[in-house]
Amino acid sequence: MHLRLYYSEQFALEASKLGCDLNGITRQLASLEKSGVTSERVNTDALSAGDLSRAYIEAVMPAVLRKYRVRQVFGSRRNSGTLFGRHVPALVVIDEAGRPEDVYPHQAGLQRIEILDFLRSLPGSESKRPTTQRHSKIRGHK
Question: What residue spans define the domains of the chain?
């Protein structure tokens, strides 16, 4: 499995306001690389409009086969893909043959599956820090 992250440094602050934690994604990718998963980061600020459009079309092909929605995740019904990799970072999962097999985030039914949710589900990912529970003293016992 190979992971390709499309993101924009120019719109990183905007993406974080929309709930996308690019720093968390980068940490998860680094953790997965230690377990043998390869990844690359593509800064879309350096891509032409045509190159970005081709990347979007290639990335969303799995959505058609898997029957989940991405058009409104990365744009709108009329303007699909306008937010892809710029305002909304995208993670493309690529199989061993070099074909895209999945894209995140996406809408599956009523649930939106975010990039971090997917990365955290993979073996070798950095898990969330466990929360510590404080034990309260039982009253009446010394």
Answer: 2-121
